[in-house]
Write a structure and sequence with these properties.
The protein is mainly beta and about 80 residues long. It has one helix and five strands; from the N terminus they run βββαββ. It is about 10% helix and about 40% strand. This is 2-phospho-L-lactate guanylyltransferase.
Amino acid sequence: MQATAYTFDPQTRAGSVLLDDGTPVPFDGAAFDAGGLLMLRPGQRVRIEFAAPAEGAPEVPHAERRVTLVTLQTF
């Protein structure tokens, strides 16, 4: 899924992105590290991945799911 970088703290490597509908979604340092990036600037387009929901679990909104990867969007 694509999103736009919104906040980023280089000390913790955590931050948040905005989905295309404007919904903010936080990510932790582990999700940032998984993408192999060194820095993230607000406004950059990124690709994010979410943790798969547990089998049989009801679908939850994206804003409540855990981001597992943040990386640059490439075409």
